[in-house]
Amino acid sequence: MTSVTDQDIDPAVMRKQYRSEIVDEGSLAAHPMDQFALWFQQAADSHLFEPNAMVVSTATPDGRPSSRTVLMKQFDGRGFVFFTNYASRKGRELAENPHVALLFPWHPIARQVIVTGTAARIGRDETAAYFRSRPHGSQLGAWASEQSSVIESRAELDRRYAELEARYPEGEQVPVPPEWGGLRVVPEAVEFWQGHENRLHDRLRYVLDGDGWRVERLCP
Predict the structure, then answer these.
(1) N or C end of the chain: which has fewer CB within 10 A?
(2) What is the C-alpha radius of gyration for the chain, rounded to an integer number of angstroms?
(3) What values do phi and psi take at 65, rounded to 5?
């Protein structure tokens, strides 16, 4: 068996020089969600794989963290929305501790967006509207998977799905699972990170200040 120390790849010598334009404070939008909309469009135009993929980090009330990648499905001036089973690990943790961090890792264009804020459930009408827009198979999958719970085997998961597929064939409306829905992350700080040469990156962070936002530059 090959040990870790026998590997030829040394992460300590892996380096990339990021070449891009300096981000000036004066070029930023007044509101972080407007700036996010601009960068998100540029990420999509760069043909990144799933630019709406984000790492969601939550924690238990006693501070034990967990992270996972999910797909952001909506955003506007109120914040960022993703959907999940509320009984999942992230759903349970956010119910007990609403503080959350998001990370959009747009590595091919040397950019990141880092969000900290609080999460709350969206309305059931909003959840239902999005659920009905999902492909039929994804709707069935939301019922088949008791997200984050232990399951005996892949065969058991496939059996559950097959039963649902027989009960709700293509074209028949699938009800919204009662424990499935959206969570909106309302930002308190949003950092826009742009990589540069010599590790002199731009880090510009919007911080909620009363009813408005202020921008501060962080050392890289």
Answers:
(1) N
(2) 20
(3) -85, 160
CA 22/CA 106 separation, integer angstroms: 17
Bridge pairing between strands 99-106 and 111-121: antiparallel
Tokens of 93: 């943790």
> What is the C-alpha separation between 174 and 161, in angstroms, rounded?
13
Contact 102, 42 (CB under 8 A): no
Q: Which residues contact 173 (CB under 8 A, 6 or more apart)?
A: 132
**Which residue is it, tokens 């939550």?**
58
Q: What is the pLDDT of residues 70-128, one digit of tens each?
A: 999 999 999 999 999 999 999 999 999 999 999 999 999 999 999 999 999 999 999 99
Amino acid at 1: M
The whole-model pTM stands at 0.89
Check residue 8 and give its pLDDT: 77
3-state DSSP assignment of residue 186:
strand
3-state secondary structure of 69: strand
The DSSP code for 47 is: T
Residues 36-64 have a mean pLDDT of 97
Beta strand residue intervals within 73-140, DSSP E: 74-76, 79-85, 99-106, 111-121
